[in-house]
Design brief:
It is a single chain. With 147 residues, this protein is an alpha+beta fold. The protein has one domain: Aldehyde Oxidoreductase, domain 3 (Alpha-Beta Complex). The chain has three helices and eight strands; from the N terminus they run βαβββαββαββ. Strands 1, 2, 3, 4, 5, 6, 7 and 8 form an eight-stranded mixed β-sheet that branches. Helix 2 runs antiparallel to helix 3.
């Protein structure tokens, strides 16, 4: 039987309400002294043939969930975290909308900040996720991740 990993995927954009609710749920956890949040937003990049209006995200979901679990466990082992949440969009996300939400919490700010940064970098490098940029002329181009 395949192990069940925490689902990190959200269909479409990650809404401001989801982000606000996640933050609000942590107010009862009074042992937390610091949070770090990364929000990845789709840019309206200019391409030779037009502007990016959206990105359509796809993933090898089973492998991505397993890898996200490994990244999560490694971060908990390395940093003194209280909580960690990772959400990534699948499907179409329009320019200006949020596609990645990483939220770490710890007793002290440095652990939350360092862990959040490392998690984002590992997600970008290691998760089997792909984005197809949708250009305003209806052309599509596979996105290449940059730093």
């Amino acid at each position: 039987m395949q192990p069940k990993y925490k689902n990190i995927f959200v269909q479409g954009a990650i809404t401001p309400q989801k982000i606000a609710d996640s933050i609000a749920h942590h107010s009862v956890k009074t042992n937390i002294g610091g949070h770090s949040i990364f929000l990845g937003q789709v840019r309206e990049d200019a391409k030779e043939t037009g502007k990016v209006t959206a990105i359509e995200y796809t993933a090898y979901e089973e492998m991505a969930l397993e890898k996200a679990h490994e990244i999560r466990e490694a971060a908990f082992a390395k940093y003194e975290l209280t909580c960690m949440h990772i959400y990534h969009s699948l499907g179409e996300v329009k320019a200006g909308e949020i596609c990645l939400f990483v939220f770490t919490s710890s007793k002290h700010r440095r652990a939350a900040m360092d862990a959040c940064n490392e998690i984002v970098e590992r997600i970008k490098k290691e998760l089997p996720l792909w984005g197809k940029e949708i250009i305003d002329n209806n052309e599509t181009v596979w996105k290449v991740n940059t730093i």
